[in-house]
Fold this sequence. Notes:
By secondary structure, the protein is an all-alpha fold. It has helices spanning 5-37, 44-51, 55-59, 65-87, 94-109, 114-126, 131-153, 162-174, 176-179, 188-204. The protein is elongated and about 60 Å long.
Amino acid sequence: MHQYAPAASDSASRRARRMNRRLQEILKIAARMFAELGYERTTLDMIAEELGLSKPGLYYYIKSKEDVLAHIFQNIFQNILDQVETALAPEMTPIERLWRLMGAYVIHACIYPEGRALFLYQSNLLSVCDAELVGLRDRYQQMLEDTIAEGMAQQRFQVSDAKIASLALFGSLHCIPLWYVPGGPLSPEEIGNYYATILIGGLVNPQPLP
């Protein structure tokens, strides 16, 4: 009896991987259509036709356009958090940690077309978004705030309010997917480094208005 358990487990695992690959394909096609045609104009019928699926077949994976955005939202922010949690080390300075945090965000947010679709139409999602999804975004922002607060405590950052500073950084990063062009002159890594240089520099040595 025990000898059949691994086979059953392997079969279930293979099926789960196939379903996830199919879901990711659906998300990429839907995101491309949102980015190119607009969220409002894109219908589930159009997505199903593009994929060569029946509408019931599509519903097996997603239930609505908001469901597509929710999956994209979760993928992007979970990938950001996964990357920074493996890349950050206790011995890093606040500057180094902030650099990694910002770089991870830019790299994953610039994935095309998912990043552009999400950040163009995030308002359509957040009005119906559950607490778990919003919590992923808030967790990232809290990491920014905590890192800035630590830098302030060490007198590395010369700003007076960590929360406002984290919101300023997050807001600056947020718009990047709206203008980023795949294959453009700068890679996401280079864009992340450019933003980090400017924004972290503003924390280290903020300049008053003349």
